[in-house]
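How a chain folds remains the central question behind the approach discussed here. For one protein, we set the task of working out the structure tokens from the amino acid sequence alone. The sequence in question and its structure tokens are set out directly beneath this paragraph.

_____
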Amino acid sequence: MYDAIAVTKFTMVKRLLFFITAFILVLASSAAMAANATLSNLTVSAGTFSPSFTSNTTTYTILESSSTGSITFRPTQTLNSSTIKINGVTVSSGSNSSAISLSPGDNTITIVVSKNFNTTVTYTITVTRETISYTGSPYSFTAGSAIATLSPR
């Protein structure tokens, strides 16, 4: 004959182990989803990423000439069902964003990739558009900072 108390204790231990196992699986699943709230590729219409794009690097710079007034980005999600927003505007994976106007100097672009359970990865891109201003005589100019003064011959 079984001891009723021993059977009850055994059942409680089994249930506790089941719940612990389920909790660990949920945590592991959440971590895997967070790791996949990334982009597998990102291209820009003008300029070059520095450093070159990789999924795990989240901060980039791009240098643009003064003649570049706007740029677009084309993000590609690592896994389906991610939501991608560029400067707050949703962009489909594999599609170009709307044109983003560039002001002279530094322009910060944020790309947020979201998955289920509020896991997100944010890519921050600083696009520096050169500034050219003509000052004084028509023979001197600056691009960002003074780079040359020309004199007539």
